Amino acid sequence: MDYRLLGNSGTSVSTLTLGTMTFGSEADEPTSHQIIDTFVAAGGTLVDTADVYSGNESERIIGRWLKAHPTEAQQVVLATKGRFPQGDGPNDLGLSRRHLSRALDASLERLGVETIDLYQMHAWDALTPIEETLRFLDDAVSAGKIGSYGFSNYLGYQVTKAVYEAKAHGWAPPVTLQPQYNLLVRDIEHEVVPACLDAGIGLLPWSPLAGGWLSGKYQRDEAPTGATRLGENPQRGMEAWEARNSDERTWAVLDAVSAIADAHGASKSQVALAWLLARPAVTSVILGARTVSQLEDNLGAADLVLDPAELDRLNEVSAPRIDDYPYGTAGVAQRERKITGGR
Fold it and tell me: Angle 282-131-197 (CA atoms, 0-180°, nearest 5)?
């Protein structure tokens, strides 16, 4: 396992993160604890959860593991999130000081810790002034309740706005962003990635296997069935079967992933994860496993290094679709220039 700095902080974390959205729903507590055991034994350190996962149960399961493993727990860098509803009242959600103060205290209690290493805003809140959110987070850092903070699902301008508001007030800066990012979903490269590079913010990509598509578990024109996420719900959100199955780009990407996997004697999942680990601004990739065997396969990506030609091939077949402006050739020409001569 390799390690990188957590964005612009001084904390080091494993390049693979254990995502725990499955804990308490798709993985019961004994299985969840085995998954944590396996991750930590492999050298993994960053464990990511959220108060909304499995109705708070993911945090409780992690908290009980931490209590039962005090020595191993010392190496865990703990991350959670707040923002989504924790009740039926109008103030039981969002990024207001009122909601976040209660949500953070509740997460600390469920996890059984005094400090959460990384506290993340799970999504943008258009109703709460950003100054209110950032001031709360700075106060939480000063109080020792959190070590640092980050965001999830923010747009590029939202990241930049937060960075410069924090700087203007002398508040602690954000250190990370969690976006969806994988070989099938690359549009964040237009604005989000440049904003994070500019601020030194580290990316923690979620859904690195595109909901299982990049693992090779689905076949062209064969509707999924059985105990898979799409087998249980073919219309599941952005991963929905019909749209991706009918898109030639999906199968071009999978063909390239498969060929590279065969050349390395690796799994398709490992190739997709290795590609993501090589992308600019990426600090650590979040693995979401239902079983120990899934996690063990994904952990193999830590030892897989793709050569430049393989990376170029994957970049080419997975290139996001763009119009000529503002992100295509004509738009790029307006943002670059030569040192001398020409435009």
Answer: 20
- The half-sphere exposure of 313 on its side-chain side, counting CA atoms within 13 A, is 17
Nearest C-alpha neighbor of 320 from the set 289, 279, 287, 286: 279
Distance (Å) of CA 88 to CA 64, 149, 202, 304: 27, 26, 34, 46
User: What CA–CA distance (Å, rounded) separates 154 from 149?
Assistant: 14
> 31-43 b/e with 16+ CB inside 10 Å = b?
bbbebbebbbebe
Degrees, nearest 5: CA angle 180-184-188 = 45
- pLDDT tens-digit readout, 226-246: 666 676 677 777 777 788 989
Catalytic residue IDs: 53
Structure tokens at 266: 């690796």
For residue 124, give the nearest of 92, 89, 86, 81 by alpha carbon. Answer: 81
Question: Do residues 246 and 227 lie in contact, with contact meaning Cβ atoms separated by under 8 Å?
Answer: no
pLDDT tens per residue across span 62-116: 999 999 999 999 999 999 999 999 999 999 999 999 999 999 999 999 999 999 9
- 304 three-class SS: coil
Q: What Rg value do the Cα atoms of the chain yield, rounded? A: 20
Q: Is 257 helix (H, G, I), strand (E, B) or coil?
A: helix
Assess contact for 231 and 314: CB atoms under 8 A: no
Average pLDDT in the 136-158 region? 98
Q: Which residues contact 126 (CB under 8 A, 6 or more apart)?
A: none
CB atoms under 10 Å from CB of 259, counted, come to 12
Alpha helices in the chain (DSSP H): 29-41, 57-68, 70-73, 97-111, 130-142, 156-169, 192-199, 229-232, 241-245, 248-264, 268-277, 292-299, 308-317, 329-333
CA-nearest of 295, 296, 298 to 274 is 298
Q: Which of 31-45, 129-143, 209-223 has the lowest mean pLDDT?
A: 209-223
The reported pTM is 0.94
Provide the CA 201 distance to its chain's centre, in angstroms.
13
309, 264 contact by CB (below 8 A): no
